[in-house]
Amino acid sequence: SQTIHQWPATLVQPVGSPLSLECTVEGTSNPNLYWYRQAAGRGLQLLFYSVGIGQISSEVPQNLSASRPQDRQFILSSKKLLLSDSGFYLCAWSTTGGHTIYFGEGSWLTVV
Amino acid sequence: KQEVTQIPAALSVPEGENLVLNCSFTDSAIYNLQWFRQDPGKGLTSLLLIQSSQREQTSGRLNASLDKSSGRSTLYIAASQPGDSATYLCAVRLGTNFGNEKLTFGTGTRLTIIP
């Protein structure tokens, strides 16, 4: 069966520090991968999605970047965090042309 | 640009009652619509998925309907239980080719079932 792992689950980072959130999917090949952010009181906002290694689309201009070094690995990064980067970050995957999207457990980021 | 709205933002009902959650979207040319459940501080769990050619889907006490032409979907929960308390989100997908496969989410309805 397919599983998705996301870590770390929680982190508190000072303003200006770097960020790295990692997501891996097991049990499938060539998944579509997504990073969403859920800010307090707001809906889920799609940040990045990828349909293959080296293919990453950014949905909104921001302080973050994403990379897909391996087929089933998706990394969300920042060189210098802002207070506004605080939120709940969710990684997700779906099969190419598939119907359902599956989410990880999320990572709570607090920038102080 | 697709916009998804869920009203009400919060809902409290006594245990045992049937209830309906609403979702509306502005672009009716969708590929499918999905309902999710999110417990506090957790990821999302898929509940039901309705393809654009379908009118409804059922799973246990849950029934989701889709009226694509009017841009509406409802999630019906029968005989509500305290364990149903969570935030419910709907999301639409435009297609399957590159650029259309991503989901657009509503802001959710926070449901509280009162014992």
Give an overview in words.
The complex is a heterodimer of chains A (112) and B (115). By secondary structure, chain A is mainly beta. In chain A, 0% of the residues lie in helices and 57% in strands. In chain A, the strands form 2 sheets. In chain A, strands 2, 4, 5, 6, 9, 10 and 11 form a 7-stranded mixed sheet that branches. Chain B is 0% helix and 56% strand. Chain B is built from no helices and 11 strands. In chain B, strands 2, 4, 5, 9, 10 and 11 form a 6-stranded mixed sheet that branches. A 5-stranded antiparallel sheet of chain B has the order 1-3-8-7-6, with no helix packed on it. The model of chain B has no long low-confidence stretch (mean pLDDT 92). The interface between A and B is medium-sized, with 26 and 25 residues.
Euclidean distance between termini CA atoms of chain B? 41 Å
Coarse morphology of chain B = globular
In DSSP terms (H or I, runs of 4 or more residues), the helix count of chain B works out at: 0
- What percent strand of chain A? over 45%
Helix content percent band of chain A: under 10%
Characterize the main sheet of chain B.
6 strands, mixed
Helicity level of chain B: under 10%
The SS-based structural class of chain A is mainly beta
What integer value in Å does the Rg of chain A equal? 13 Å
Structural category of chain B: mainly beta
Which protein chains make the most extensive interface, counting residues with beta carbons within 8 Å of the other chain's beta carbons?
A-B, 26 and 25 residues
The best one-word shape of chain A is: globular
Number of helices, counting only DSSP H or I runs of 4 residues or more of chain A = 0
The low-confidence runs of chain A, each spanning 5 or more residues with pLDDT under 50, are: none
Order of helices and strands of chain A: EEEEEEEEEEE
Point out poorly predicted stretches of chain B: none
